[in-house]
Amino acid sequence: MLRNAQGDYARSLKLMRDKDPQLSEDGFHLLTLIAADHIDELIQEYRRDGPHRYWLLELIAGAGSPRAFDVLAEALDHEEESYRSRAEGGLRALDTKEARRLLFERGRRTR
Predict the structure, then answer these.
(1) How many Cβ atoms are within 10 Å of 36's Cβ, its own excluded?
(2) 83 contact partners, CB below 8 Å, separation of at least 6
(3) Which of 18, 34, 42, 68 is least crowded, fewest Cβ atoms below 10 Å from its Cβ?
(4) DSSP assignment letter at 66
(5) Three-state SS across the chain?
(6) Which domain of life is it from (predicted)?
């Protein structure tokens, strides 16, 4: 099953949502390998998914795509610290002028 999902966004996402914890972890790992190529889909999933929302944010933050800026900026205000921390890490990794400015404005050291 994993071999069939490798490189396949839809199958990897389905695995990540599996009730079996190991398959869910495997699906997440497979998505880390292709997240940058599917950033728009991941952002859409993040906006509508509940149970896997943090994992989706982790994938988005790790993708290194400037298209992730808006989601990361929103997550910087999330009520949960883990989301804020992941968003900050994603913005630091982007290292764009816009991301650095936002971090500075929020009182987060940029370097």
Answers:
(1) 16
(2) 54, 57, 75
(3) 18
(4) G
(5) CHHHHCCCHHHHHHHHCCCCHHHHHHHHHHHHHHHHHHHHHHHHHHHHCCCCHHHHHHHHHHHCCHHHHHHHHHHCCCCCHHHHHHHHHHHHHHCCHHHHHHHHHCCCCCC
(6) Bacteria
The Cβ of residue 41 has, within 10 Å, a number of other Cβ atoms equal to 13
Residues 69 and 64: their CA atoms lie apart, in Å, by 9
Nearest-angstrom CA–CA distance, 5 and 100: 36
* Extents of the domains making up the chain: 2-105
- Record the tokens describing residue 15, joined without a space: 């695995």
| Alpha carbon distance 85, 83 (integer Å) | 5
The structure tokens listed for 56 are 């989706």
Whether 35 and 59 have beta carbons less than 8 Å apart is answered as yes
What's the pLDDT tens digit per position in 48-96? Answer: 978 999 999 999 999 999 999 999 999 999 999 999 999 999 999 999 9
Per-residue tokens: 23:
């398959």
This prediction's pTM: 0.90
